[in-house]
């Protein structure tokens, strides 16, 4: 970001100011480390002090590295928020709006960047492939430093992908497929390594389950992930409970992150309290560590300067805001991110789904009959109260869950637009729209189930064995 003091700092949000101060602090450290001319260092320091003053004037808080402004950190344990503000953190998503979370506001509050048409077009030029429908439809809507990843790719410099899954239950639901479907596409069009973290340690710490059950869920979830079609020669899936004990590089990065994040900072970012177990407090460093290539020496031949790109839902961003703050202080590149919207519960877009509520979503284990019943019985409708009213006034696609699900899983853009126009005009009834969704989801889930049957324990072992992948570094 530009350092010119002539920019209008008043137009920046508190979180944008916070990131400006952070970036300028990194520049000052780099100039000093590089023994730059004194006048250049002095100018950078003056800019840093000016930014810190603007930050304090705007927020009423002194700048603290790694601790974003308190009124903007969305945490689990009750920070004050405006009445109409959405609550978004790694454990909760709440909104009073039937349309779901206001993602434009979330971009401003989190200080990320909108994925616009220019960026989508650039991805298409770089890969030579039509952009994934998740990009075309704004399902992946926000990013951090994707332009830097494209710069590297266009200059023949490597990067890698990192995503994950918290195995809280044996059966995954269709919402869990979203990051993996998109990550698979990214891996194919860019032809890069992929690491997938299974945070079974996290689930043991947060959930009422044994450590053995958490590990069992991780291996079962790995089968569903593998069934998405990942290439074993280019993909490493790992359980934290397994890998942490075998990789010195991984553990060293965890300790480095732990040293550079204070207890006050993790309380501010994640809402931890004095009553939380110390495992929770230290866990964010474990989720941060796969962002650094040195955590996987067997893949990257010990190289530490390979940038990471993380496709994930926006609720995971607090982990990586912390990671991005720490990265330059431990000599690592900042990870880049691509953020997705939340997949709505069948009952409506006000909350994200729960694996503990079988009726909140369609699970990958559901039969064709269960899928039909769930959609017909539980999918929130944007239709009118009577057929007559619906024919006259039309349905509301913005709140209709069946239409929302079709934006995720119906790949034909023309067909989706036809359905939208027909439903909005009243030509298509709610029951007819649900029928289209049923006919879309039943074969999709059946095909997934068939692929999963082919995933043996031996195949899981191959994916989860630390090893060199089909890339030279």
Automatic annotation (TrEMBL):
The answer to whether keyword Transmembrane helix applies is: no
Which biological process, per GO, is one annotated for this protein? tryptophanyl-tRNA aminoacylation
- Show the SMART domains listed in the entry: WHEP-TRS
Sorted alphabetically, which Gene3D superfamilies does this protein's record hold? HUPs (3.40.50.620), S15/NS1, RNA-binding (1.10.287.10), Tyrosyl-Transfer RNA Synthetase (1.10.240.10)
Give any Gene Ontology cellular component: cytoplasm
Q: Which UniProt keywords apply?
A: Aminoacyl-tRNA synthetase, ATP-binding, Ligase, Nucleotide-binding, Phosphoprotein, Protein biosynthesis
A single GO molecular-function term is:
tryptophan-tRNA ligase activity
Domain (WHEP-TRS): give its ranges: 13-69
Any idea of its EC number? 6.1.1.2
Pfam families under this entry? tRNA-synt_1b (PF00579), WHEP-TRS (PF00458)
Q: Which SUPFAM superfamilies match?
A: Nucleotidylyl transferase (SSF52374), S15/NS1 RNA-binding domain (SSF47060)
Which InterPro entries does its entry note? aa-tRNA-synth_I_CS, aa-tRNA-synth_Ic, Rossmann-like_a/b/a_fold, Trp-tRNA-ligase, uS15_NS1_RNA-bd_sf, WHEP-TRS_dom
Signal peptide start-end? none
PANTHER family registered for this protein in UniProt:
TRYPTOPHAN--TRNA LIGASE, CYTOPLASMIC, TRYPTOPHANYL-TRNA SYNTHETASE
The record's comment on protein family reads: Belongs to the class-I aminoacyl-tRNA synthetase family.
**NCBIfam families associated with the record:** trpS (TIGR00233)
What is the recorded name of this protein?
Answer: Tryptophan--tRNA ligase, cytoplasmic
- Organism equals Struthidea cinerea
């Amino acid at each position: 970001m530009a350092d010119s003091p002539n920019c209008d700092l008043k137009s920046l949000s508190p979180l944008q100011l916070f990131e400006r101060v952070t970036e300028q602090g990194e520049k000052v450290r780099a100039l000093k480390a590089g023994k730059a001319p004194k006048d250049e260092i002095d100018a950078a320091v003056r800019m840093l002090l000016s930014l810190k003053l603007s930050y304090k004037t705007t927020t009423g808080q002194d700048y603290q590295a790694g601790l974003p402004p308190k009124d903007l950190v969305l945490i689990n344990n009750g920070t004050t928020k405006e009445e109409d503000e959405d609550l978004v953190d790694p454990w909760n998503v709440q909104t009073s709006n039937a349309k779901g979370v206001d993602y434009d506001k979330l971009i401003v509050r989190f200080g990320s960047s909108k994925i616009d048409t220019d960026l989508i077009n650039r991805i298409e030029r770089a890969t030579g492939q039509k952009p994934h429908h998740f990009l075309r439809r704004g399902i992946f809507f926000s990013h951090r430093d994707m332009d830097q990843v494209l710069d590297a790719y266009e200059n023949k410099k490597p990067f890698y992908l990192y995503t994950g899954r918290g195995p809280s239950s044996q059966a995954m639901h269709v919402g869990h497929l979203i990051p993996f479907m998109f990550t698979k596409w990214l891996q194919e069009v860019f032809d890069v390594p992929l690491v997938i973290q299974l945070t079974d340690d996290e689930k043991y710490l947060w959930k009422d389950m044994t450590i053995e059950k958490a590990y069992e869920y991780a291996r079962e979830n790995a089968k569903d992930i593998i069934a998405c079609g990942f290439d074993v020669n280019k993909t490493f899936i790992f359980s934290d409970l397994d890998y942490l004990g075998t990789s010195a590089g991984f553990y060293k990065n965890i300790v480095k992150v732990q040293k550079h994040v204070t207890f006050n900072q993790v309380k501010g970012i994640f809402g931890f309290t004095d009553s939380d177990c110390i495992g929770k407090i230290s866990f964010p460093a474990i989720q941060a560590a796969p962002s650094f290539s040195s955590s996987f020496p067997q893949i990257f031949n010990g190289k530490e300067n390979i940038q990471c790109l993380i496709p994930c839902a926006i609720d995971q961003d607090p982990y990586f805001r912390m990671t991005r703050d720490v990265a330059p202080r431990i000599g690592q590149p900042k990870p880049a991110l691509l953020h997705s919207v939340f997949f709505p519960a069948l009952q409506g877009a006000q909350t994200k789904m729960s694996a503990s509520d079988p009726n909140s979503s369609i699970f990958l284990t559901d039969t064709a009959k269960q899928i039909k019943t769930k959609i017909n019985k539980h999918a929130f409708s944007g239709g009118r109260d009577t057929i007559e009213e619906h024919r006259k006034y039309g349905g509301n696609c913005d709140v209709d869950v069946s239409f929302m699900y079709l934006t995720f899983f119906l790949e034909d853009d023309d067909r989706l637009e036809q359905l939208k126009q027909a439903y909005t005009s009243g030509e298509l009834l709610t029951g007819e729209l649900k029928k289209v969704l049923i006919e879309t989801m039943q074969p999709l889930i059946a095909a997934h189930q068939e692929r999963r049957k082919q995933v043996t324990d031996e195949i899981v072992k191959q994916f989860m064995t630390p090893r060199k992948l089909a890339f030279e570094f």
